[in-house]
Q: What sequence folds into this?
């Protein structure tokens, strides 16, 4: 059984920790955060407020890094130099050279490393990739992707509102959709960006051109209680596929309309037979299988990370 430790017990760790606890192949043995109160609700695991002490005291197979962005690369290299496999929250860093550095550390130490870009494991986004790759509905003509919400006032030391530490909306929020685009469609040939930046707000509207189609994407932190929403709409020659209001729908040229059912069962002729899944559990299970089999986590490739960082710096 693989022994797991989590560094950083903030927002995203709440999605990761239950996944590690529920898997048969893993045992969550330790967690670490400089704020003891953040760890109080987790029983049956050792708790540390110092990362080096945890790495010294525990025999860890996998370290799950859920720390602030600016700590990702150094922490990953430190763990891999000890022979520990690393799953690291996105983004890997604000610097492209760090993306190179972490993969060099993984190769040098013969360990597995992966950045947790969760949309690659999110069933609605997986579905669109499968449709695009298969050509089922013909060529892709256009797309729209949106990810907007309230500015993150809750982060420790307000680090997320510090551009030097988080990269703000481009690196913390928009990166989800851009990474997905690069993963599925490759590197865009042209990027046009409009940005409305204010001390307490940050909004992006970007158009990416991919040869014979384009995708418009928006991302925002508003300084008002706007509810978080993530959506997309892709126009193919023979169908429109949209995720709106948390529901995936396929509108076929023929007039048929199909909805994605939560339980994966075909209740009627208007349902898509796809299983319900937890994207965070999917990515953690995938990485665990890579560690157990000794295979690299190639679903996320270094060139994709470097391409995304390069583009984000132009926005």
A:
């Amino acid at each position: 059984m693989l022994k797991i430790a989590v560094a950083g017990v903030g927002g995203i760790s709440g999605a990761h920790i239950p996944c590690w606890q529920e898997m048969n192949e893993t045992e969550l043995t330790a967690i670490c955060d400089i704020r003891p109160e953040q760890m109080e609700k987790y029983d049956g695991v050792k708790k540390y407020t110092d990362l080096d002490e945890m790495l010294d005291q525990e025999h860890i197979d996998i370290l799950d890094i859920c720390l602030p962005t600016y700590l990702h690369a150094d922490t990953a290299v430190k763990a891999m130099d000890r022979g520990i496999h690393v799953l690291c929250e996105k983004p890997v860093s604000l610097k492209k050279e760090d993306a190179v550095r972490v993969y060099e550390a993984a190769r040098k130490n013969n360990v597995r490393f992966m950045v947790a870009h969760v949309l690659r494991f999110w069933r609605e986004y997986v579905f669109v990739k499968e449709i695009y790759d298969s050509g089922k509905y013909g060529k892709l003509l256009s797309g729209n992707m949106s990810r907007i919400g309230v500015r993150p006032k809750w982060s420790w030391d307000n680090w997320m509102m510090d551009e030097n530490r988080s990269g703000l909306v481009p690196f913390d929020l928009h990166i989800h959709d851009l990474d997905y685009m690069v993963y599925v469609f490759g590197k865009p040939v042209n990027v046009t960006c409009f940005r409305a930046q204010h001390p307490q707000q940050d909004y992006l509207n970007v158009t990416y051109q991919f040869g014979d189609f384009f995708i418009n994407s928006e991302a925002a932190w508003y300084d008002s209680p706007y509810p978080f929403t993530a959506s997309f709409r892709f126009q193919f020659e023979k169908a429109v596929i949209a995720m709106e209001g948390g529901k995936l729908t396929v509108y076929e040229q023929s007039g048929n309309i199909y909805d994605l059912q939560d339980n994966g069962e075909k209740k009627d002729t208007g349902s898509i037979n796809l299983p319900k899944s937890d994207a965070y559990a999917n990515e953690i299970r995938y990485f665990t299988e890579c560690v157990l089999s000794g295979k690299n986590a190639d679903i996320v490739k270094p060139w994709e990370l470097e391409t995304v960082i390069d583009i984000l710096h132009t926005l």
User: Anything to note?
Assistant: The chain has nine helices and 15 strands.
